Amino acid sequence: MDNKYLTRSIEMTMSALIMYWKNYFESNMEKYSIKTVTMGAVLYSAYKHEGVVQDDICKMLNMDKAYVTRELNSLERLGYIVREKDSEDHRKNHIYVTQSGVEVANTIEKVRNDWSAIEYENFTEDDKKFFLSLINKMHNNIKAHI
Asked: pLDDT tens digit string along 117-145?
């Protein structure tokens, strides 16, 4: 198969999958005022890593500080997180998820699980392992050249 055609096909398919995921996630999270996948990712990261500092969220999600700050500001306005200054380094903010934020994070987890079930419907366990091994190889190839 022609590599140029294959690359275009992979790029188009990956773009479509990302778009479908974005639409699915955002429509399921609309009632919680979670407007973007990244907003949900920031909240979920804070939920999974209680007391995490902003810089670590940036690293985990490979996002710039200004963007994470904007998402945290939105989450704080919604009452889903609180920030507390580090007792030793006042430049650092620790992020804690409120009870209402925990409820939203649990919904995010459910939406992610439901999406995975849809995504891998009709896949055998061997199909999943093979697919993930191929996509990881692609990722490593690309990462080695960037």
From this structure: 999 999 999 999 999 999 999 999 999 99
Report residue 143 as tokens.
């990462």
* Residue 53 bridge partners (DSSP): 94
Decide: 58 and 22 in contact? Cβ < 8 Å.
no
Residue 30 DSSP code? G
The percentage of the chain sitting over the pLDDT mark of 90, rounded to a whole number, equals 84
CB 109, CB 44: distance < 8 Å = yes
* Domain residue ranges of the chain, discontinuous segments joined by +: 3-145
Give Cα separations from 17 to 10, 24, 128 (angstroms).
10, 10, 16
Query: Which pTM was predicted?
Result: 0.86
Q: Which of 96, 101, 91 is nearest to 55 (CA)?
A: 91
CATH fold group of domain 3-145: Arc Repressor Mutant, subunit A (1.10.10)
Closest CA relative to residue 131, chosen from 25, 41, 13: 13
Q: How does pLDDT run across 89-114, given as a tens digit for each residue?
A: 888 999 999 999 999 999 999 999 99
Cα angle, residue 114 at apex, residues 118 and 14 outer, rounded to 5°? 50
